[in-house]
Design goal:
single chain; alpha/beta; Rossmann fold; seven-stranded mixed sheet; 9 helices; globular; binds S-adenosylmethionine
């Protein structure tokens, strides 16, 4: 895992001090170890974990300067992308959000304390937290949670005007973006650009959405409503 991480960081031209890359490797190993007894990820191979979890998360460092920023990771699961980012950039003010209690408890009580990672933990559904945590974050980021139009409704309400939503997507990025154009506009966002990274032979896309206006109060709606009537 260590070799694959270091080689990938070099390819991505991301320079990190040794103690930070060691922390990232320790986290990756902790995920694979816990995965033997708790369902955290479909990936069990250390090289694939380095590429598909660690490097994919860290690619966000190339998209925006994150030092000192508040970042909300929506649907963090086993901690991606938020935890590798915090280990790489300790000044990041990280909040992890997920509805699955078991994963959040593992992160909060077992995985992160030995690594010295400080974060806030929001356990529950994004659409329920969006009222109390509205327009509070510099950046929201999310990977593998929902289709882009639905994801925008889950994530953009958390970002203040001038902030960014970073949606990590794979091969379907362009198609999802086309489908989400109206949702982005209605929710106070503005599509800025897509950054592509080649990691482990596959293209990973980060869709960068700038929050240029306020999200109208009626959003987000309930998950059932969002799915039934997407903002297309
Ligand atoms: N982001 C992680 C990653 O890329 O490895 C986890 C991806 S996992 C496939 C999706 C996660 O999103 C799950 O842990 C699930 O509980 C969470 N999730 C899905 N919808 C959510 C919602 N509306 N609010 C909070 N968490 C949600």
């Amino acid at each position: 895992m260590r070799e694959a991480l270091l080689a990938g960081l070099e390819r991505l031209k991301i320079e990190l001090p040794r103690e930070r890359t060691e922390g990232i490797v320790r986290f990756g190993e902790a995920v694979l170890e816990k995965n033997k007894v708790m369902n955290l990820t479909a990936i069990t191979d250390p090289v694939q974990a380095a590429e598909l979890h660690l490097l994919d998360s860290l690619s966000l460092l190339k998209v925006l300067p994150l030092g000192g920023k508040s970042l909300l990771d929506v649907g963090t699961g086993a901690g991606f992308p938020g935890v590798p980012l915090k280990l790489a950039e300790p000044s990041l003010r990280l909040t992890l959000l997920d509805s699955l209690q078991k994963r959040m408890r593992w992160l909060e009580t077992e995985a992160l304390p030995p690594l010295g990672v400080e974060a806030r933990f929001l356990t529950g559904r994004a659409e329920d937290f969006a009222r109390e945590q509205r327009e509070r974050y510099d950046v929201a980021a999310s990977r593998a949670v929902a289709r882009l139009d639905l994801l925008c409704e889950l994530c953009l309400p958390f970002v203040h005007r001038g902030g960014y939503f970073l949606a990590m997507k794979g091969a379907l990025a362009k198609e999802e973006l086309r489908q989400a154009a109206n949702a982005i506009r209605l929710l106070g966002g503005s599509y800025e650009r897509t950054e592509e990274f080649e990691i482990g032979g596959a293209v990973h896309s980060v869709i960068v959405i700038h929050k240029t206006g306020k999200t109208p109060e009626q959003y987000p709606r309930s998950w059932a409503r969002m799915k039934q009537k997407p903002l297309a």
